[in-house]
Amino acid sequence: MKMYLLKRISLMVLTFFVIFFLLFVLIRLQVKPEVVYGPDKELEAARLDALGYNEDVFTQFFIYVKNCFKGDLGVSLKIDYMAPVSDLMAEKLVPSLLINLYSVLISIPCGFALGIYSATHKNKWQDILAGLGIMLLISVPSLVLGFLLQFFMGYKGGLPIVVSSLYEAGGFFTAEMLRSQIL
Questions:
Q1: Which of the 8 DSSP states describes residue 75?
Q2: Which residue has the higher pLDDT, 81 or 68?
Q3: Which pTM was predicted?
């Protein structure tokens, strides 16, 4: 049993590093080291060279992994030029957690209620209709479902399509913030 467990864990770690490396390579292919974004080309070329963008992909990957273990996730070249990625992620963490919290707080009670209702009406038209509706919602691509929800709940129903800012909502845990994040 120990050998089986050790084998599965080692395969998991290997799979993680293969996926991690492939994602790293695909992201690096999007950012060309010879392209300089800022107004001062010499300074920007020196920065990219110091960050290791002129090295081969394997060396860049090992530099990145070493820096990740130190807590340095690199710098942003697109969102906020040369800002630390960890700062950008920390800035977006609370709104992302809030949207996920709201979705869990809405979906779990709805799922329980629908499951209990279907169980109490087993093999009746209500159970079949609930199962058919859930199967339809799972089958529809999220892009199409998102568009339909925006149209019917946002445009026709009056819900905001864009999330309110902290200033407009008055804080993260307010009724206005919840209302703006329902979609």
A1: B
A2: 68
A3: 0.58
Q: Which residue has the higher pLDDT, 66 or 14?
A: 14
The pair of structure tokens assigned to 166 is: 């902290």
In the structure encoding, which two tokens stand for residue 110, read together?
């709805």
Give, as one character, the DSSP assignment of residue 163: P
* Gap between the Cα atoms of 4 and 6, Å rounded: 5
**Residue 142: alpha-carbon gap to chain centroid:** 14
- The angle that helices 57-70 and 2-30 make with each other, rounded to 10 degrees, is 110
**Can you list the alpha helix ranges (DSSP code H) found in 31-149?**
41-50, 57-70, 85-120, 125-139, 142-149
Q: Tokens 């599965």 identify what position?
A: 8
The values of phi and psi at residue 84, to 5°, are -65, 135
